[in-house]
Structure to design on (250 residues):
């Protein structure tokens, strides 16, 4: 068996890891309670209604989870500007041709099982980053439509900021349908996300799953050095391009 020298690299900072797990729990809670609110189960009992306020608790859990989901999302946006390079917002938005090239390469690797070669992604790969960017947009839509529906039954000043939502989307019915559709988007995303995490962890063996617990990944030393050289070269080229030219002496 070939022996490889691995480097331990700290990738995910504590705020990113907390965001990930809080967000996961909030989405699970929102999907379960949201589905029950949209299609209430017919549970019969012989006691008085005030003795069985279980559906009120379902709605309460949904509303609390929504607040946690929303403010957790805002903190992640903030951390995209102040966090390390692996959490930076540039990892999620295609800004150059290389980003699209890397996306296509990862797509071939994940779906068509092509050889990935010596390409290495310490943080998010290009395709994952772009999918997360689309997911952030879905987060915003889901939060806006959710608070838009909640505004009619809440006296809190914060929810009143979303009073315009039903007007824009054609009433509560249109907002509710959009909110429900995006719920299924999150369910499908979670299924694909979990599969790909296990797939990359198994094939690459770099601690993909455990990294979201402790923050560390294990990278082949040779591949890591190549990646660092590429980054230094790109930074040097960027610096030389931005630096003003020295005027010629008369």
């Amino acid at each position: 068996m070939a022996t490889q020298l691995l480097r331990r690299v700290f990738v995910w900072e504590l705020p990113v890891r907390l965001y990930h797990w809080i967000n996961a729990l909030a989405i699970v809670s929102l999907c379960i309670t949201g589905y029950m609110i949209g299609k209430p189960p017919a549970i019969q009992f012989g006691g008085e209604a005030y003795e069985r306020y279980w559906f009120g608790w379902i709605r309460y859990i949904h509303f609390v989870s929504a607040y946690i989901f929303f403010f957790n999302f805002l903190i992640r946006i903030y951390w995209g500007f102040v966090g390390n390079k692996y959490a930076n917002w540039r990892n999620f938005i295609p800004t150059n041709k290389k980003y699209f090239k890397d996306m296509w390469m990862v797509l071939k690797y994940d779906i068509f099982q092509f050889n990935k070669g010596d390409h290495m992604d310490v943080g998010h790969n290009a395709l994952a980053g772009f999918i997360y960017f689309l997911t952030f947009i879905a987060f915003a839509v889901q939060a806006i439509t959710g608070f838009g529906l909640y505004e009619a039954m809440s006296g809190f000043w914060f929810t009143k900021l979303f009073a315009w939502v039903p007007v824009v989307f054609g009433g509560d019915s249109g907002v509710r349908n959009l909110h429900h559709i995006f719920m299924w988007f999150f369910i499908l995303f979670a299924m694909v996300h979990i599969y790909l995490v296990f797939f990359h962890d198994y094939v690459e063996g770099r601690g993909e799953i455990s990294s979201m617990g402790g923050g560390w990944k294990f990278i082949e030393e040779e591949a890591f050095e190549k990646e660092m050289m590429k980054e230094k070269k790109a930074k040097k080229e960027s610096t030389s391009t931005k630096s003003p030219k020295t005027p010629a002496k008369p």
Notes: The chain has one domain: 14-197. Residues 14-197 form a domain with the Fumarate Reductase Cytochrome B subunit fold (CATH 1.20.950.20). The first helix runs from residue 14 to 38. The CA atoms of residues 17 and 212 lie 6 Å apart.
